[in-house]
Design brief:
about 35% helix; alpha+beta; about 140 residues
Length: about 140
């Protein structure tokens, strides 16, 4: 899922909401804001229940990481990395699979349904470059 703000989420869905394990990548600060700052969250890999919820890892633009239990983007309990690694690994695996599926789906739509692809691009002209950014995102553990 791509948002108008430039965030994206890859993982599982349930009843129209992000659910289970996945990856949420936050958009960088708006242009003119001095670029990504130390206080800007880059991504969250872990458990979701409509939002980050439960065990996971938040990574900041300066490379710092927080491991623990989250409610939204708030770290509510710091937990050792060893307790979070399995959840993060599973979340990144789910995200990689979702991104591969999205790429295959877009290529199929683009090649087999040109009129629909054109409508998609009219609504979201940045879609191809967004998919490329997702392809290039480092989802390593």
């Amino acid at each position: 899922m791509l948002t108008g703000a430039g965030d994206w989420y890859a993982g599982s869905w349930r009843d129209g909401a992000v659910w289970g394990r996945g990856l949420h990548v936050f958009s960088p600060p708006a242009a003119g804001g001095g670029g990504p700052s130390q206080a800007w969250r880059r991504d969250f890999a872990g458990s979701f229940d409509g939002q980050p919820f439960g065990l996971g890892r938040a990574t900041w633009w300066d490379g710092r990481q927080e491991h623990g239990r989250f409610h939204g983007t708030q770290l509510v309990e710091q937990v050792g990395r060893d307790r979070v690694d399995e959840v993060v690994g599973s979340a990144l695996q789910s995200a990689r699979a979702a991104c591969r599926h999205a790429r295959r789906l877009w290529l199929r739509i683009d090649s087999e349904h040109a009129a629909f692809a054109a409508q998609c691009l009219a609504q979201a002209p940045d879609l191809p470059s967004a998919l490329s950014r997702i392809d290039e995102y480092d989802m390593s553990e």
